[in-house]
Amino acid sequence: MPISLRPTARAATHLALGYSGSPLAFGKWLLVIAVIVLGLGLGMPDLQAASGLGLPRCKPQKALEFLKRPSFVRKGRLDGHGNDRALRFRVEHYGRIEGMPFAELNHEKAHAQAVTAHFFGLPISIHRAVEPALRCVERRIRASCRDSHERYKPHAIGGFREQNTYRGGEVSNHLFGIAIDIDPDKNPCCGCVDPWPTHPACQAVGKELFERTALPPCWVDSFERYGFYWLGRDPQLRDTMHFEFLGDPERVVSR
Ligand SMILES: [Zn+2]
Predict the structure, then answer these.
(1) Is the pLDDT of residue 238 over 70?
(2) What are the distances in angstroms from CA 254 to CA 46, 52, 136, 167, 251?
């Protein structure tokens, strides 16, 4: 349908475009402009999200406090009540794990909800509810960690795991598929069992947090922006390779 404009407005617009013609042709020009604007938007995350091209509209959120390990493990002692609360939430939202408490709360296994995602081109098995959050993180990193000291290229990543790596009642978030490890050789877990503490990055007493890892702060900020918790901040573990999604899985993207 031709676009109806008052003659003066149409004349002014035609002048700006250096164009004169029928209203129908003018409509085509508007279409061309819309396509150009949309094309420019592809380079900008917010416009990209708003353009409805099947990409997620990322919603920033903080990790939930009660899910963070230091809220239920203090000075190496497990708070049973706090641990149960965090475990219950994870089973309810991500699925049950055979042989672990609260399995009766969810008929679906966590591992049955694994999808293969890609993070910086590397394949990773991860829970389907968290996969959009990981995409949001990668998009944020690509858009904002561009200075030379902020660049980092991952070589080895890990997600879903079926063996628990904690003892004493804790359940690893790798069993729920909501954790990702990045380059263990460069980003050690200084508070884990041997051989990790012997890693050169863990040696000096009183080392600053970012001296224990090759990951730039900008990368950590990007994960934290979308509900991930960096286990490098855990005062006991200092597990700098490890990020886990502790946000609300219902709020990862706008619907
Ligand atoms: Zn890990």
Answers:
(1) yes
(2) 12, 11, 12, 37, 7
